[in-house]
Amino acid sequence: MKGKTHAGIGAVTFISIYDKVPGGFNYLGLVVVILASLMPDIDHPKSIINKYILPFKNKKTKTIVYVCLAVIVLYFDYLYVNTPALKALGISLICIAVSSHRNGLTHSLVGLVVFTIILSYLGKTYTMPNIAYYFMIGYGMHLACDMMTKMGVPLFYPFIKKKYSFPLTYNPSSKSGNGFEDFLMIAGIAYTIYRLPGIF
Fold first, then answer.
1. More confident residue, 53 or 21
2. Are 153 and 102 within 8 A, CB to CB?
3. Would you put residue 102 in left (φ > 0), alpha (ψ -120 to 50) or beta?
4. Model-level pTM?
5. Which Pfam families match (predicted)?
6. More exposed terminus of the chain, fewer Cβ within 10 Å: N or C?
C-alpha cells in the first residue's frame, strides 16, 4: 500500500473515532497518527520518510545511516544529557536499522508494542499523556491495511515468521490495486468532509 494511502486511512480512522480516544480531537493527535501510519515503512529504503534522509535508496545505506544516527544519539546522551528520551530514540533507530521491510519487527505486533511503550514513556516524561493512543491508531491501521495486500505481514515476528493477511486481498502494484487505493482515498475524503461539522 502506498504511503499516502496509509496516511489517509490513518487520518480518517482518527477522525472516525476521535470522540472515543482520550484527549479527543486535536492537531497534535492528527499529526502523530499520520506519522505513525508511515512509520512501519521506515525500514524500506524508498519510503516517504527515507526519501528525505537517505543519500542512496538501498538497504545497506539505510542500515548504515540508522546505525550511525543511533550511535550519535546514544553517545551524545552518554556524554551530555543522560535522558531516557534519547536512549529510547537510540534504541528505536537500531531497531529500524536491523529490520527488513515486511519481514521484521516494524510490521509486527511486537514492534507495535515496543514503539508504543517508548512513545508512552516519552509522553509521560514530556506531559503528552495521550500520545501513545494516537500512535497506536496510526501504527495499528498500517498493519491492518498491509494485511489487505497479498504480501501480508509477519504479525507475530520474531516468534512466528509466517506472514498473515485477510481472506480477501489485492495486489497493490497492479492496476486494479491502484484503482482500489484511489477509491479508498476518495471515500476517505468524502467521509472527512461529512465529519468536519461535528469536529468544529
1. 21
2. yes
3. left
4. 0.85
5. YdjM (PF04307)
6. C
